[in-house]
Amino acid sequence: MDGFRNKGFEPTRRAALSLIGAGAFAAGGMTLARATTSGDDEVLTEAKVLRDPDVPVAGNPDGNVSIIEWSDYNCPYCRKLEPELRQVIQDDGKVRLVLKDWPILGPVSVTAARIALAAKYQDKYHQAHDAMMGVSSRLTESRINELLASVGVNMDRLKSDLTARGKDIDAVLKRNNEQAEAFGFRGTPSFIVGKYRVPGVLSMVEFEQVIADARKAKMN
User: 197 near 32, Cβ under 8 Å?
Assistant: First the structure.
């Protein structure tokens, strides 16, 4: 599966957007859904979706609108979108980007996601993320190692952290997956923008508009 399972589907902004639900992310962390695989554990609370301390954040950490992105390092749509989304966030200046690694395109995607999250323990997550998103060809394990070494990741430390923190890393990926499934996402990239669910790729202009819509919805 590359991006959407329905290949060729490119939704317009109005067709793609849908409100998460009445009272979504209300004060107090209202539960929006529960995982079917985790008993009664709450999955879609504000704290777990927006404020997971183990999930990296880019943009303005104090921004007044949050974009939550579920992505896969081997997803060509994610790579194509990355520079445009980052430009929109930089130009806006008040957007908080939550980066949810969602490796759904095979074993190498899982390896890439685990390595990126392990790099976080040496404050190199964003360098690892940008390096893997910046390539045009499908990743392999050897290519991943080359890319991370080239951006200053200490590979010996990385291996040590993968061993020592493996359960924590896998728990993050499990939470990310459960949330994506609870939201009904079918592929990467997928987004929550404020209170809107955006299952797919938008243009820069469309992202700017949905950010504006999210701010208006927040005020209402």
Answer: no
Q: Has this prediction a pTM greater than 0.90?
A: no
How far is Cα 79 from Cα 118, in angstroms, rounded to an integer? 21
Helix (H) / strand (E) element for 171: namely helix 166-183
Residues whose CB is less than 8 angstroms from the CB of residue 11 and which lie 6 or more positions away in sequence, other chains included:
199, 200
Closest to 79 measured CA to CA, from 134, 117, 128, 116? 134
> Residues 161-211: pLDDT tens digits?
999 999 999 999 999 999 999 999 999 999 999 989 988 889 999 999 999
Cα–Cα distance measured from residue 122 to residue 117, given in angstroms and rounded to the nearest whole number:
10
DSSP state of 29: T
Residues 61, 73 contacting (CB under 8 angstroms): no
